[in-house]
Input
Amino acid sequence: MSDPTAQPRCRYCRKSHVELEGINLAWHIDQYAFPHGVQSWNNEVFEIKRVDIGLGDTEIGQAILGNDADALFGKLTRGGDNDGRLPDSWTILGAVVYACNWNILQKVLGKKGTARAYNLHVSMLNFTELEVHPMFQALQMNKMNIFKKFIQFNDGTIPTAILNYLIATQSVELIQSIITDDGKLPGRHSLLVKDQYGQTPLHSSMINTHKSNKDHEVFQTVFQVFLNEVERTAANGQEVPDKEALFQEWLSVEASFPNRPPYLTPFTCAIVHKVSPAVEQLPDCQDRQLHAPNWWGFTPLYFAARYVNHDAFERIIKKVGKLSAETSCQLGGTPKFAVVRAFREMDVVVKSNAAEYERKIETGEIPSGKVEYSPLNEQVQEIYRDMLRMAFQLAESNNMLQHVPHKHPITGQTAEEEADALQYDDLVEAFQRGWQEFYWRDATFHVAKFQDVQLLYSRKARADMEKELAK
Output
């Protein structure tokens, strides 16, 4: 490791980046700006904090926890700030749902005048923290009937953060019943909204991991409602931008949410999460999306290379290939460097899987040679081939321009030098336009699934193995 003070200061985290594995890969860039996600993403798209109960420290909280409706209403002040008498960001209705006191909730929802008399409707309007909002509590407990009653209670309006959470986590059927025109619960909520982190319903539709969303129906549903609203809003024409301006505005919104790369537009969000219908349809609304860099300077092609979305990569490079392949940003360099980092992630993931695989064989948890448990399974090999294809195509584009090889703005090395330092022989060869897919397929076809994982990356290791087999 080199002296941290010798490294340039990052203008985003204000820290000096430390040399990593001999090629100056910055921890901040590697872990924060581009978290792992080549194989699959975790489901932690929202940072849900643990609720600090604290309700028993107040008289109102004690009445709620004790399910004592008479005591509760006896302590509430008509027209007063009753929510403010609870600890932290709690609201009366949020606490009632959290405590599962359906008796009290029925009294509140049964007579709207009662709720307004005690300002309990403010629980819906004043969004404090996601975790304590009544609608969120209902979703967390899978109380969908109560959730829908809350929407009606709130005059058909859903706070933006709750709407995003709903679209990102719930079933296709529930989402359709709430946001579509033919749904049974018409409301006044708009999809042309964004939360404090820039997240829009379009973004949310592409990170949905519900089991009912097998073919990206959530995106298809949300996108159609989005298109309808854009048409309707533009048609009204009252000091409202035209349709093209609305597309430009809402398809350029950059969102940042936990455990994902920051500053994702809907299009780059689709690339990162491999939502094929979105990759195909969003550029039709705004061609500029195919090349436009985000606030940090990363282009859609860079994202496609970094997260190994070969279909998106080919779509982009065919349209704006030469231009996008040469675009370099201050933090990440060109898309060739993105391939190196994707390789490095697969190296880390596969070696970790291989170690776990060997452990399970030793302990007898799995029988030796079981293909389905292999760290070199078909998914890994397919991703590996896609990375090499992209490296080859980028090298082809660069060669057509007869360019001088770019050096990474932080590491000071070319992509070829980085790949060579990491001993990624096939990647180096692909960058030199000498890689042949059929050779790699043939060379790895006979590799036992449980053998040294280095065989996946190193041509020398494969050659040594072939010599041993020939003896």
